[in-house]
Amino acid sequence: MLGVLEPLQRDGDEDGLTEALSALIEAAEETPKLFRAVLDSLVTFATAIGKNDALEATTRQTAMELLVTLAESAPGMCRKNAQFCQQIVPVCLQMMSSIEDDEEWYTVETLDDSDNDENHVFGEQTLDRLANALGGKQLLPVAFNYIPQMLASSEWNQRHAGLMAVSSIGEGCLKIMRNELGKIVHMVVPFFTDSHPRVRYAVCNCIGQMATDFAPKLQEEHHAAVLSALIPVMDQTSVPRVQTHAAAAMVNFAEEATKQVLEPYLDTLFERLLAMLNGSKRYVQEQAITTIATIADNAQAKFNKYYSTIMPMLLNVLAQATDHDHRLLRGKAMECATFIALAVGKDVFAPDIPRVIELLTLTQQSVTEADDPQASYLQASWARLCKLMGAEFAPILPVVMPPLLTAAKQQPDFAVLEADEDAETGYSAEDGWEFANIGGQQIGIRTTLLEEKCEAVELIGTYARDLGTGFVPYAAETLETLVPLFKFYFHEGVRVAAAAAVPYVLTSVKLAGDDAALRQVWSHICDCYTAVLATEEDDTFTLQLFNSFAESLSAVGANSMTPSQLESLASACIAQMTKYYKRMKDREAARAAEELDEDDEEQLAEEEMLEGLAV
Questions:
Q1: Which of 320, 325, 346 is nearest to 283 (CA)?
Q2: Helix (H, G, I), strand (E, B) or coil at 122
Q3: Best CA proximity match to 412, nearest among 443, 445, 378
Q4: pTM of the prediction?
Q5: How far, CA to CA in Å, does 391 sit from each of 305, 399, 467?
Q6: Could you please report the per-residue DSSP string of 202-228?
Q7: Among 274, 322, 440, 497, whose Cα sits 20 to 30 Å from the Cα of 577?
Q8: How confident is the model over 221-264, as pLDDT tens digits?
Q9: Is the peptide bond before 354 cis (omega within 30 degrees of 0)?
């Protein structure tokens, strides 16, 4: 293996070296144990490539990608290698420290992820993946050999990298870091007053990630230390990106905080958020609206005192900000308005219901472009209004359902390219395209369409659940759309949402008293359930589908399966239990051979739990 790689490196053939490493990545995904005998040498070689600043970013990143792929494909093998983390983590931190300051970062008018291919971003992502693959016992001691000295550095990019490292490893090192959470909070909070704006941005990112990873412990035990430092950063109008990121971190904190934790801070939060809402940069306004929505959702009735100030501002945005550049702002405004409606309740919101419905209807009529961000916000906003209004929402379904059904029926876009073709030329990542190298070709799929499809299916289930008999006019078309999605293998979320929604649709027909129509559609649906269950390999979806089948049977009622259908169900159950029994025996053999370490046991425990629930 190295006999191929080393000459390419020595001769300076970076294209050939990158191509060879890419081929090894495919092998590492499929048969990682083949690398066991050469792992020491491979780690040394690949990390030498990764830390060589003279090489192209693509070459360095491909070498590191090979190692992290091995960690994800064979974590036990990599944990047993004493040098694996010792050599890889410093390279990740070196890459993360390569971030450069530039004037454009401060002056941009819109925020995007245009730096995703930069070495410093790749380093963050790689460290995060390593932590999740190998766990804290392996990675944390190595990382914290470097992080404290990086945070103490006089160089801003070192401090930035240290903070981003803390946020990157939190999820994977959760168990160990949770026990030291107080010390970690005390270590990072002072950087909210750092002299460099990029470091203040990094600590906002760090605390925002920690608020998710270490919830609710962070919120319950450290809210005073965190919020007393975080909230003032929302005043930093001289650096709008830092101000905005502080408000974004507040979203993560509030999503996992109790009302009791957040209530003492509401006045000072809304004072700053209203100031941001009146700011000059659109992305600041957009983030302010998102944060207001999250805090309103948390505060519930406590939000009533702010309703008369904020709701007119949001309705004004929907009515006045009608140009193309303000589409995202309008989407966030409708999201915020409907979150506030749920928070304060129908009685408080009632006077504004007609105006909100009018504005949302006008907006829906104006959405004509496939990439209009308002579309997804509209769908979710209608769903929140449905939850608030109940049966009174049924007359609005003719406005809401057609675009939802269209989105639920759309098929994914695919592309197949040769290995040497430039995918970015015609299939931009900004448009949602993701590619994987399979069998010497690049196979691409447009993931944004899949997310839209998943969201549409989830919302259809919400309407069927909340409207009951009011949903019946759309029941037949909905079932025709949802049931085939049990086999939509491109996106697990779509399958899960479809399985969850079908019982709600059947229940709506049942509540309408049309048993004949219910029995007519049920026979085919029942056959689809048993056919998928007989061959399903995904344990999580198997569990979801069994639950969905049970709920559907409950909706249809007694004597709803023919003898042949009962026989098919029994065969499917036996097939699943046979598979679980074989796995159980394989685990017993692995344990007897002492092939498993502590992290392997944790993963197997999760598998056993899922299998037990499915059985």
A1: 325
A2: helix
A3: 445
A4: 0.83
A5: 28, 15, 5
A6: HHHHHHHHHHHHTTTHHHHHHHHHHHH
A7: 497
A8: 999 999 999 999 999 999 999 999 999 999 999 999 999 999 99
A9: no
